[in-house]
Amino acid sequence: MNLHSPSATQRLAARLGKLLQPGDVIELSGPLGAGKTCFVQGLARGLGVARTTRITSPTFNIVLEYPARLPLVQIDLYRIADATELIELGFDHYLESGAVCAIEWLERFPEAAPPHRLSLQFAIEGPKRRTLSVVGHGRCKKLITQWLGGQP
Ligand SMILES: Nc1ncnc2c1ncn2[C@@H]1O[C@H](COP(=O)(O)OP(=O)(O)O)[C@@H](O)[C@H]1O
Ligand SMILES: [Mg+2]
Known about the structure:
By secondary structure, the protein is an alpha/beta fold.
């Protein structure tokens, strides 16, 4: 799917945010600057996070939480060294908390990936052009048709 501007990315994300259910997990991957955080900003709007709340990359915090219709938990595993640190972080606790979890760098810990999740892969095609490919796992598969309908 083509995303031709940051606002197009956010609009698409906001539509997904409106559909999400407790415990849904969104995995975001792709290079730096591909639009993962931009997407999470739109997701937050769709979930009802207050417009005044600034959504940034959780790189230094690892986990950031935002209250909304369903709480949004943003997790960045870039700085997590191993499975022990992942446990200490309370990773499983967040997954089971009923919040919506948006996770970056989950591909570093394939064994920790929950069976129900939507995997979003972003790629940079030009200054404003990004592409997004979506794979659904487990019960999150059905989200794709609700979200994208007949869109290619
Ligand atoms: N189509 C697009 N979708 C998302 N971001 C875009 C797009 N075009 C340009 N950008 C810019 O690319 C950058 C994406 O940054 P960010 O979302 O922080 O990326 P990441 O979290 O993947 O490192 C932002 O500066 C944004 O304005
Ligand atoms: Mg980011």
